[in-house]
DNA sequence: GGGTATTTGTCCGTATGTATT
DNA sequence: AAATACATACGGACAAATACC
């Protein structure tokens, strides 16, 4: 037997799904049915389904059955846009049908010591004090992303005291910093990796805890007009329903 | 039993890995050992290991054992750099220790009819003729990314005949198009999604065929000085060893 | 609300195959 | 060739979630 049985079953089912013989959202035959169809044991059938599950083709629902996953049009985040109103729920979002509402929780504000990487990004000494502002963000009531922004404590000491208040800063933190301290956002750098979800993320985004859906993690460091970093924003998105877009130079 | 046994075992092992009680690269106890340690059946132990595997913490090697995965420093691709010498192996790469060599195969050139999405990106009619130039790219001899560029056939008709030759175009296609047709790259748009690897990709990148490692797919559309798209480049990277960086505005 | 049937989830035991040392 | 370790495949039993009457 060159190819294991469970792979043969998985390949056969995959063909039926990709040829639309089994439609999106439709239910697959039950494990019991598949045992009969392929003359295999239940565990072998389940191995086949698990393969399709980790590849994101199907999902199982206890008590109901196994279903072909529905394709969802992804949320699009444009990296080349500055964060206008980044805490006020006005976050820019491109969607084919733009009738969507976005919202975010009030920030949870913490005073922390900078980890090695955070200190490095903000050009601070390690263990420097930073302000952390954490928010959960939703689209149409569904969890969309988790965001934490870090600011050097010097900004508060210089007068930007609203940074340590657990309230939205409207119309945006950058506008506020410009008004209070004259800091302008001259540029930013996004650094993007894909990694497995941790427990908190799996809970918030309601991911199956088998670790199949990975996370897109975006570290954005913002620089002022003197080239000094003044903010680090870490955003995490579920990779299966989000898309990133970046424009450079002149695009139509 | 609130938490299933295999999850308890997985959590316990995860703790030992994250606390470095079991070092990176080290071997886990064998399935037989774990059966004894946790007084569980072999299948239950294997369920626990599978959970850690899909989360990317460990990998199994038949005949050898189960090992904690080594952390590899990711390859960094800077999206905000134009593709200087994009076919000549000079692709820009940021690495801590920059003593690395990159190389790519000679392009495989095909004449194709544009799919719906490709036609849309290049502002062509569907089923228009496009040139496809496909390359495999390596770093230090290891597979790094797959790249396919699409060009409208009108570029060849207007004189850029080297596009349909299966040879590198040095110092770069953009330079060539500028010289022959006066086309300059005024800007570009990157669109990034994460998806499961297909069979060809799993083979090229030597991924385990359990579909655990997903792919980063980057669609880059380049625009000329008149705002017209003249090239679409689709790149695919394994998500577990690649990082994207983008700079906007003025960054230090 | 309760009970029952259906369906997937967990767990066990066993046997054999394949890869590596 | 032999020993070790993971991979595949079978069988059975009970639990948990869901749907339906």
List keywords for this structure.
homodimer; 252 residues; alpha+beta; two-stranded antiparallel sheet; DNA-binding
Summary?
Two copies of one chain form a homodimer. The first copy, chain A, is of the alpha+beta class and 252 residues long. Chain A is 24% helix and 32% strand.
Describe what this molecule looks like in 3D.
The structure is a homodimer of 252-residue chains. With 252 residues, chain A is of the alpha+beta class. The first copy, chain A, has helices spanning 5-18, 31-38, 42-54, 116-121, 153-157, 173-181, 199-204, and strands spanning 58-61, 65-68, 75-78, 102-104, 108-113, 129-139, 142-152, 187-196, 214-223, 229-238, 242-249. In chain A, strands 4, 5, 6, 7, 8, 9 and 10 form a seven-stranded antiparallel beta sheet that branches. A two-stranded antiparallel sheet of chain A has the order 1-2. A two-stranded parallel sheet of chain A has the order 3-11. The first copy, chain A, starts with a helix and ends with a strand. In chain A, strand 6 and strand 7 (142-152) form a beta hairpin. The interface between A and B is large, with 43 and 43 residues. Chain A binds a DNA duplex (21 and 21 nucleotides) through residues 1, 4-6, 30-32, 40-44, 46-47, 49, 60-66.
């Amino acid at each position: 037997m060159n190819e294991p049985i469970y792979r043969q079953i998985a390949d056969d089912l995959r063909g039926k799904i990709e040829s639309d013989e089994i439609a999106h959202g439709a239910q697959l035959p039950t494990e019991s049915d598949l045992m009969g169809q392929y003359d295999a044991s239940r565990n072998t059938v389940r191995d086949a389904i698990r393969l399709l599950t980790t590849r994101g083709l199907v999902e199982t629902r206890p008590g109901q059955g196994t279903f072909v996953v529905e394709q969802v049009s992804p949320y699009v985040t444009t990296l080349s846009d500055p964060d206008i109103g980044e805490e006020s729920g006005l976050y820019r979002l491109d969607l084919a049908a733009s009738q969507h509402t976005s919202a975010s929780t009030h920030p949870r504000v913490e005073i922390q010591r900078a980890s090695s990487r955070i200190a490095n990004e903000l050009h601070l000494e390690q263990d420097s004090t930073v302000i952390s502002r954490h928010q959960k963000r939703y689209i149409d009531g569904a969890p969309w992303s988790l965001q934490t922004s870090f600011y050097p404590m010097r900004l508060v000491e210089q007068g930007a005291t609203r940074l340590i208040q657990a309230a939205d800063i409207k119309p945006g933190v950058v506008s506020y910093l410009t008004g209070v301290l004259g800091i302008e956002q001259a540029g930013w750098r996004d650094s993007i990796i894909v990694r497995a979800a941790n427990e908190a993320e799996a809970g918030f985004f309601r991911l199956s805890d088998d670790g199949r859906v990975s996370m897109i993690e975006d570290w954005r460091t913002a620089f002022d007009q003197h080239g000094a970093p003044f903010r680090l924003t870490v955003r995490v998105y579920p990779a299966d329903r989000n898309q990133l877009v970046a424009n450079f130079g002149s695009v139509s």
